[in-house]
Every structure is written in C-alpha cells, then in structure tokens.
Amino acid sequence: MSGYKIVIPARHGSSRLPGKPLLEIAGKPMIVHVCERALEAGQEVFVATDDERIAAAVAGVAVTAVMTREDHASGTERIAEVVDKLGWSDDIRVVNLQGDEPLIRPELIRQLAETLATEQTAQIATLAAPIEDPSDVFDPHAVKVVIDRHGHALYFSRAPIPWHRESFGQTDRTAADDYPWLRHIGIYAYTAGFLRRYITWPPSKLEAVEALEQLRILWQGERIRVIRVDSPPHAGVDTEADLRRVARIMAGGDSR
Predict the structure, then answer these.
(1) What pLDDT is attached to residue 1?
(2) Cα torsion angle, 236, 240, 244, 247, sign
C-alpha cells in the first residue's frame, strides 16, 4: 500500500477553549499527544497552524509544522493551503486528523487512508460508529450520519436522523432500538486533487445552518465514503470537562 500524508490542523483561536492545542494533558501540550498518535500510523505528519506557539510546541516531535493563514473557515481549508504550499500531486492521499483528538487510535487512521485508496466513486472518506448512548441521538454535539447501501453518506445532521415517526413524536423521546444509529467521527481522508476543487466551492446554506463543513461536499453532488467502525475512539476535547476526562483516561482512570 503506497504512503499518504497526515495533516493536523491546529488553530489557536478556539471559541470554547482558546489556545486548545497548547493545553496540557499528562505533562504535554495536547497537540504533542495528537502528533504522537499520528506518528504511530507510520506516515509523514504535518501540523498546519496559524500560531508560532503551536509550531514551537511540536518542534521536538518528528513532524513538520507549516504556517498557514489565520482566516480559514475550517480545517479542510487550512489543509488545502498546505497541499498548495508543498506542491503535492493530485493523487496524494491526505488524512485530516483534528488537533483535539489525543486518544485517536492509529489503526483508524490507517484504515481510513487504505479504504480511500480502493474507493472507486469518492475522493473523500470518513468514519462513523454505532451510537451506544441513546441520549446521543438527540445531542446536537453528536453529529449523526445516514448512509446508502454502498456506504456513501446521504446526509449529516446535528438533529436525530432518520426521524423515527412512531417513537419521536411522543413527549418522552427515547431512541428506538430498531435502527442502527450512526455517529460521525470527524476524521477525513481526501485526495489532494479533491482539496484543490473543494476550496473553489462557496459555502452552502446547508453548511451554514448545521455548522457542518462536510455538507458543502454533498451540496456539490460529491460522494463521501463512510467507513463504519464498531469500536469508536474516545471523543475529542471541546470543553474543560473533556480535558479532565482525557487526563483521567491517560492516567489510567475511567472515562466518565
């Protein structure tokens, strides 16, 4: 299997946790943990950042920091700048690993990139896992995805999809157990050529309403291959509570 690149977009200005990539977990900045997990996948790793402090934090790790503009609306746009700056050919596969995923399992990175290499009808792939906690179906922070019989995404939403007509119409809403609800895992693999096309597309209204950048892709009629994994990774870090949870896991404690 030919190689691929892993790019970690890491901006300093997170709205909920400013300076998030530099927050310390188990004695290291979070971005360093993410880099270490990425390196375990056995490929070249790049950190795409808009802040010199983040670049300095990864200077002691075997990764390449690439300075990017501050005005990108998404990690995908930031990675597209890296593709352009480094002149990667259109057929190069690029894995977008979020900078707030310090517990990502390297085998998921490899599975994603290898599946894209054999995909015939899509130039982007992502992951999803069964929803185990029924309350997540109604949690807007848990992005749901529905797929077709070939494993391609039909839609992503923060709302419960599909809508269970019989169960969800009740006052006491609980997720019915007769449907395999899927939660999207926000890691992507694309070809460099796809990224060059992506940045020419204007944001869609769907993307703006749901605040989900992948809807720009579906709006354009492109296919997204969704790989179902039965064992999802631990959730990333979006809040102070998440930070404490990850620290407990790394210390050998529980994940609550």
Answers:
(1) 42
(2) positive
pLDDT for residue 18 is more than 90: no
Q: Rounded to two decimals, what is the model's pTM? A: 0.89
Cα–Cα distance for residue pair 71/105, rounded to 1 Å: 30
Say how far apart CA 256 and CA 245 lie, in whole Å.
6
The Cα 20–Cα 51 span in angstroms is 12
CA dihedral sign, ordered 164, 139, 97, 230: negative
Quote the CATH superfamily of domain 5-250: Spore Coat Polysaccharide Biosynthesis Protein SpsA; Chain A (3.90.550.10)
In the chain, domain spans = 5-250
| Percent helix / strand / coil, the chain, rounded to 5 | 30, 20, 50
Residue 166: Cβ within 10 Å count:
8
Q: Which residues are 60's β-sheet partners?
A: none
